[in-house]
C-alpha cells in the first residue's frame, strides 16, 4: 500500500529572518534580479546561456556546488543522479547543477557521478558572488521567481534531496540502493 502523497512545502527558507506566513495562502517568492538572470553559465560544449533562461519558462531545482573536486558535493551529485528522469518529467521540473569550474570538467564529472540531468558552470563565479554565496552551495527551486533557498552553513549542511523534491512536487526517491524486499 502506497503512502499518502504529502502536500508540497512552500515556505521560503534562507539565512535571513523569515517573514510571517502570508495569511492569503499565496506562495511567497522573490524575483531573481535581472542583473543575475543575464549572467552567463556555460554548458559542456562551452556554449554561453543566460542563467535566467534555464528556468524562465519552467520550474527547476538549481543546485550550486562548491566545486567538482569537493567530496561531499560529489556525493550529493551522485545521489541527484539517482533521481529518475520520469519522476522529474511527471512533475514538469528540471534538475540543474551549476559548478565553479571550466566547462571542460563537466563531462568527466558526469561520468564520475553518473549524473545525466542538466549541468552548467559559472567559471568566473559571478552568479555565486552576486547571490552572496560564500561557502558555495545553494539550492533554489525556481520559476520566474525564487521560491526556496537553502544556504549551507558548512560543507556537510546539504539540504536532504527528498525535502527539496517535495517542494516542487516530485515523488519520493529511495536512495538506499537496497534491492526491493518481497514479503511472502
From TrEMBL:
SUPFAM superfamilies named in the record: Thioredoxin-like
Disordered: annotated span: 1-28
Domain of life where this protein originates: Eukaryota
Gene3D superfamilies: Glutaredoxin
InterPro entries cross-referenced by the UniProt entry: PXL2A/B/C, Thioredoxin-like_sf
Protein name in UniProt: Peroxiredoxin like 2C
Native species: Phyllostomus discolor (pale spear-nosed bat)
Taxon lineage: Eukaryota, Metazoa, Chordata, Craniata, Vertebrata
Amino acid at each position: 500500500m502506497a503512502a499518502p502523497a504529502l502536500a508540497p512545502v512552500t515556505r521560503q527558507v534562507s539565512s535571513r529572518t523569515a517573514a510571517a506566513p502570508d495569511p492569503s495562502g499565496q506562495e511567497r517568492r522573490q524575483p531573481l534580479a535581472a542583473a543575475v538572470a543575464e549572467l552567463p553559465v556555460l554548458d559542456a560544449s562551452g556554449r554561453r546561456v543566460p542563467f535566467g533562461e534555464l528556468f524562465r519558462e519552467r520550474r527547476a531545482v538549481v543546485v550550486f556546488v562548491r566545486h567538482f573536486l569537493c567530496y561531499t558535493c560529489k556525493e550529493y551529485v551522485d545521489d541527484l543522479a539517482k533521481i529518475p528522469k520520469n519522476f522529474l518529467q511527471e512533475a514538469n521540473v528540471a534538475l540543474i547543477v551549476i559548478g565553479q569550474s571550466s566547462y571542460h570538467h563537466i563531462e568527466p564529472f558526469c561520468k564520475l557521478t553518473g549524473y545525466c540531468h542538466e549541468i552548467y558552470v559559472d567559471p568566473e563565479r559571478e552568479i555565486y558572488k552576486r547571490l552572496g554565496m560564500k561557502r558555495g552551495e545553494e539550492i533554489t527551486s525556481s520559476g520566474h521567481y525564487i521560491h526556496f533557498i537553502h544556504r549551507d552553513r558548512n560543507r556537510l549542511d546539504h539540504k536532504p534531496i527528498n525535502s527539496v523534491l517535495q517542494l516542487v512536487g516530485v515523488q519520493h526517491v529511495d536512495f538506499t540502493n537496497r534491492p526491493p524486499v518481497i514479503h511472502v
